[in-house]
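Quick check before the chapter quiz. The format below is the same one you will see on the exam, so make sure you can read both the input and the output lines.
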Amino acid sequence: MTSSDAFDHVAADPASLFPRLPSPVQELNDERFTRRDLRLLLKRDDLIHPELIGNKWRKLVPNLRAAGGRTILTFGGAYSNHLRATAAAGRLLGLDTVGVVRGEELADRPLNPSLARCAADGMRLHFVERSAYRRKAEPDTLAALTRAAGAEDAYVVPEGGSNALAVRGCRALGAELGERADVVAVACGTGGTLAGLAAGLPPGRLALGVPVLKGGFLEGEVRALQERSFGGRRGAWRLDDRFHFGGYARTAPALDAFAEDFTARHGVPLERLYVAKMLYGLLTLAEEGAFPRGTTLAAVVTGRPFEAGDRSSGA
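Here is the expected output.
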């Protein structure tokens, strides 16, 4: 079977990759929430697929269909979960993938475990200086980057996979939860998952985004994504940007302690850069009295901790 034939088969029937959809919902008995008369559910999107995990499945599949078998070119930092998921998709479907990586200086260093996993899955890595990376959405810069990467005819997926197709794909997340939760929390990098989740939730439900990058820019990004995807704002959503712990890929002893304690309580390992920050924020809000008694909270688990050599990690 050619790579194109393999892709056509998957494009016609994404279930050929055997996703677990809808993803499971797990209720936790956590006294820190129950003593405030709050229910806590985990939406286990980390269990959708062994390699295309969580929001990466929901975002990538629509773009893989649209690519029509062409090379996929996308962007990310040195520890990008999106790059890993795209590389894994390329290996699974027989597609060529190119990852444009922020930081030209990284080209002269040994690959970290995340980028090494990408390379092992067949992704060609192209490192660019940070100033050019910041301008990657500009047409001239994008054209120069694709030429330099030898991928002029590639299908381009933006950083984090967040475009209109991805946002519409994430709408199913809200639809799957339906009326089971009053507030649904999700960690945010580029905002695409939040934009789709909010659009898919029934009226009267709130999508709560917890940004993992500092800067306060994400509200405008989510608004723009919903505008491009649906023609305007959809659903009720808000952001709380207090829980980034210094920015992307930053952690702190308090976050590590929280994650270790959560795993000890519930047997669910927490990915630090996204999931732990979101749950830490949800607990903080509960302790602040932000939710009325009787509220059901759902936390979207978008990934699992990454370990070198592990093909099943992502966020």
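If your answer matched, good. The domain at 17-51+162-300 is CATH 3.40.50.1100 (Rossmann fold).
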